[in-house]
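Complex record, three chains
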Amino acid sequence: MTAAVIIFFVLAAIAVLGALSLIFQKHPIHSALSLIVVMVALAGLYLLMGAEFVAAVQIIVYGGAIMVLFVFVIMLLNAEAEERTDFSKLAKFAGLPLTLALLGALAAVMIRARPGVANAAHPGSLADTRALSTMLFTNFVYPFELTSFLILVAILGAIVLAQREPK
Amino acid sequence: MVPTSYYLILSAILFGLGVVAFVFRRNIITIFMSIELMLNAVNLAFVAFSQALNKLDGQVFVLFVIVVAAAEAAVGLGIIILIARNRRSLNVERVDLLKL
Amino acid sequence: MPILEHLWIIPLLPLLGCAINGLFGEKWPHKAVNWVALGATGLSFAFALEAVREFIFVRHEQLFHKEFFDWIVAGSFRGGFDLQMDQLTVVMVLVVTGVGFLIHIYSTGYMAHEGGYYRFFSYMNLFMFFMLILVLAANYVLLFVGWEGVGLCSYLLIGFYFLRKSASDAGKKAFIANRIGDFGFMLGMFLLFRTFGTLDFVQVFSKAGPLPHEAMGQVGTLTAACLLIFMGACGKSAQLPLYVWLPDAMEGPTPVSALIHAATMVTAGVYVVARSHVLFIHAPTAMFVVAVIGCATAFFAATIGLVQTDIKRVLAYSTVSQLGYMFLGCGVGAFSAGIFHLMTHAFFKALLFLAAGSVIHAMGGEQDMRHMGGLAGKIKITYLTMLSATLAISGAPLFAGFFSKDAILFHSYLSPEHGGILYGVGLFTALLTAFYMFRLMFLTFHGKQRYDEHHVHVHESPWNMLGPLVILGILSFIGGWFALPEFWGGTDSFANFLAPALGSSEAASGVSEAAAHSLQMTLAGVAVFTALLGFLVAFWLYIRQPGKPEELAKSLKGAYTTLLNKYYVDELYAAVVVKPLLWISTNVLWKVVDVGVIDGTVNGIADGARSIGDAVRHTQSGNTRSYAVWVVIGALIVLAIIFWPVIGPAMGMVPR
């Protein structure tokens, strides 16, 4: 039991508990806060794996921007505790079994996956930010430019959608 | 060293919990958040593989996923605001005008 | 040989006449229609004469065969529009065009006051076309075209007065009964094709000639084919059991009865049997069947004709009976005798029908003999010609029927298969024939006048009706002289003439020449005696003791009613054949198959589509949570497909 494994289990537990809390909380604001917890835990895991840049981006963008946006919207809409309605028969009867089946399938896949990947030693931090950015601007420059276009479209969409209705 | 399979199992668990939330919650915003949870789980898997295979492509991909998630969150929340205004409720089961 | 090279002119002319009259004749005056119809038929007769002249004198009686164009070519089978001329064709084509032409002339007078004048002549010309195709054809396929075509024209002409239900019913009955026979004919053709690979007469007969004769009682291929073809002949020529349509066919106008149901169409069956004599000679069983059925039909129909009261009905049954004689002749091997009787029968039977038409015309439409009587002095020419025909049919010496009937009876007597019985029945039938024909004459022309003078103005027919009667009357007298046997002083030229086409039918029973001659004279004497006996009985019953027939009818009530009702054959057929068929058609084919199965399937498919749609529609619930579940299901399926090699063993389904 090395220190890394212990840290892993702690962070993993936090993440899972956060996810469970997301599922079982009644008020959406509590769910949002749980999600933030999950994200922070994941950032920790990234650090554990040696991906510093990704961890930083996770916290800044995901935690600091996207979740803040969620919280804003929840407060804007005056969201309340969820009412229990039950209109969907399919979800009522088939939802749980199917979800369990999906989990089972994923589990089976992973159990049977090649053992080589499962236990590969990792040689330490390789996520040199410089190397990452070199890759980003050489091999992946085309998707990079496209994402900027994507963000532009998203901004336009958001503005149009959230306009006040013309009187 | 933490075996990669641990990370994958955690990723699978988080993904599964995201699916559960997606199916069983009724608040639109909560459902949206469960989607974000699923994306995060996938990101974790990417980074784990990137580390196991000693290549940086996984992490680059994670960056892209985060960018797309951001754009999607922005537009999605805009739509949710409109729905909330029109239907005066955030219960997804009340948004059923397409019922045959 | 201009005409022979273009034999197709002979059938084509009536076809043109039919088309012109049919398309344009409606508004034309009768004279124009007459010109077209008579012109077509007359020219056809003229060309036929010329073709015969060329055949006899230029080609010296060698078979002429010409292929005009390919009609059906399928693999190795060729059914072409091929026409041929041999001695048998000579007889048939002259009879058809000659008698046909005379009847057309007669019709201009008889049908003068009828509606649909142009239609009548159009149909008559169409009939001539098909009949000529039938007799000129050089293969079974083209013959069958003519065969079916004359059946069609028979239907059209029997039902000429189509506004009368009985007439249209009679037309249908004729066509359906013919169809049943045609089924057999077609099967026979198929069998012949399968055996010989061709349906051309020359080729089939040359291939069949060397084959071994099949034994009596054994039903080999040739016997089966011959029996099937004879089935077709039974339908067309009204033999047992398919004769039922001919008496009903009297619903048509009298010229139709004369042309189609006396002289030409009904003889098509005899023609086919004679044409296929090569096949029949190889199949003694079939020949015996032909002879037996012919003989039985002759007797059967004659008995019915004894008591009928409608003048045309008597003649109809008489036709059936005489056709039986022709088949009897063919059945015992005397094919040329059968054809000879066909020719003489055409003369005197057509004459009988036309004269009957003249009587009916004179009586203003009356057909029941019980309402006639004493007409001899009033319509002399009709009476004299009809008397000539009656003498011919009864077998009076020197008249046409005497020689032909005698030849048939002579060969029947000599037949090795129960010849004695065939001869006996045939002779008795001759007695009956003489009886009922003279009964007809006495009831119609002699005795007391049984009609009201004030309502019926008896007048002689116009010359366009009487002319053909006179010509046919003369032919009934001299028509038999062609076949005068040698010992009478003649040359028996008819049988000799037909010998190349029909094979010699000299008595092959081992009787010596002189013995044969004396036998023939004896039998001829016996036949004349029976005819005279029939005449005397009729004379006694209807002239001397006019009340006697009624007494006899009362005392033999059972027999009389049976005969009067035609042995209840029609009722039997209706109960045994028609009713079950109608029942099956209504309850099985209509209700079960058409409505239940076919409609059910088609509607069922539509209903099925609708119910599937109805069921699937519920997936469009508009409920997002349901859609979410569908997404999960989809993800599961994709996962399973992609990772099947991995997951399968885990689930114990796929062996590693």
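Note: The longest strand of chain C covers residues 64-74.
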